[in-house]
Amino acid sequence: MRSSEATRIYFDRAADCLDLSAGIRRQLLGAKREVQVQIPVELDSGEMATYVGYRVQHNDARGPMKGGLRYHPQVDLDEVRALAALMTWKTAVVNLPYGGAKGGIALDPTKLSRRELERVTRRFVDAIHDLFGPDVDIPAPDMGTTAEVMAWIMNQYDKYHGFSPACVTGKPIDYHGIPGREEATGRGVGALTLKLLSRLGRRIPGTRVAIQGFGNVGTHTAKFLHDAECTIVAVSDADGGFQRPEGLDVLACLRHAREHGGRLAGFTGGDALTNAELLAIDCDVLIPAALGGVLTKANAATVKAPIVVEAANAPIEADADAIFDERGIVVAPDILVNAGGVTASYFEWVQNRQHYQWGVARVYQELDRVLGEAFEQVWQLSTSRKVPLRTAAYMLGVGRVARATILGGTA
Ligand code: NAD
């Protein structure tokens, strides 16, 4: 199933519950603008390479569009389109004054030198600088992009438009970024996992958690839940992972990854396992925090965890989601649980515009408040309407965007 079909299914379900008209549905489903550009770049060898970059600006009914920029070989227009729509619903679920967008370049960042990545990033900005900006569309990091990439984006944008730190978020702290942004998504995933466990009447200490993906989101989620006395029984990255039923030494995993270019390969504190084995491991909470589409019709029946927390964007295909629903597996949806990153990005954008910087304690406090309120609203809606958390989250997000669209008028 294509990524955009899954988000369409969830949208339709919420739109039915909200009784939205066909006209509004059409307006909300389509993208405001889709851009595809060629990025010719000289490699360090002197050879020319050409990459393809995308930016899909889905909806701006509630404010400037906001969404990450992904560097990954599998990036294509359909995926970017689906992720852009997800951002519209996500910013609305957590009630930020934003719309949704997403971008990406089809490339493998591990195969390019730092200088090559910088050239690709700057050429991409050259191609689209008139189409984004602080009041229009504000990119941020996603898979394969870092704070440094965001710094290059701002620096290149400034060459055309003057000093504009709010044109992109997720920047380095020493280059107009804010403390707390880097760990915000993982912190949010962790904090909402704890809220869900409490709501389900489960004891938090000793909860067995397996995490797929040990990048930005996976590492910070692991650390947060480890600090909350959960037992991290397995972690993995693109090369596979490691398990230890009594609990991995998370700090040792983090140290190993830090010392080995972000990779877990060679870790000696657990038994090796494949990514397929990790998804099927005996645990209480399964957290896919890497790619989309990893839980499918083919492997949904093998999942033993009674709770799945979508730290990644769209890790569960719609067929698998239906199977989980039938099996009584509780799914905490991406548009709610991984909204910590965009929420902290919003704080960064606000501070850039005010030329004023908060301390990390205030960032955490505001982050916990925004996410906590959204979680409670989704939980209440799910309980009162007797629908899964995903449908409730879509109802909340799609409903807010629909109301803003109607209030804005069409004349
Ligand atoms: P990242 O690039 O920092 O890390 C990705 C991790 O996934 C790495 O450990 C990588 O080795 C691993 N991985 C890649 N391919 C894999 C595979 N086939 N099997 C298993 N692991 C694989 O990315 P990130 O920023 O941590 O993002 C992870 C997910 O979270 C993405 O779906 C992203 O869209 C989503 N997300 C990220 C943020 C954010 O603030 N970074 C916010 C919201 C959602």
Describe the secondary-structure layout.
Elements: H1 3-18, H2 22-29, E1 33-42, E2 48-59, E3 65-71, H3 77-93, E4 99-105, H4 114-128, E5 137-141, H5 147-161, H6 181-199, E6 208-212, H7 216-227, E7 231-237, E8 240-243, H8 250-259, E9 271-273, H9 275-279, E10 285-288, E11 307-309, H10 318-327, E12 330-332, H11 334-337, H12 340-354, H13 360-385, H14 389-408
Parallel strand pairs: 3-4, 3-5, 6-7, 6-10, 10-11, 11-12
Antiparallel strand pairs: 1-2, 2-4, 7-8, 8-9
Helix pairs in contact: 1-3, 1-14, 3-14, 4-5, 6-7, 6-12, 6-13, 12-13, 13-14
Nicotinamide-adenine-dinucleotide (NAD) binds at residues 141-144, 185, 212-218, 236-238, 275, 289-292, 311-313, 338, 341.
What's the CATH architecture of the domain at 184-328? 3-Layer(aba) Sandwich
Biggest pleated sheet = 7 strands, mixed
CATH superfamily of the domain at 184-328: NAD(P)-binding Rossmann-like Domain
Rg estimate, integer Å: 20 Å
Order of helices and strands: HHEEEHEHEHHEHEEHEHEEHEHHHH
In DSSP terms (H or I, runs of 4 or more residues), the helix count works out at 14
List ligands, each type once: nicotinamide-adenine-dinucleotide
**Strand numbers in spatial order across the main sheet:** 9-8-7-6-10-11-12
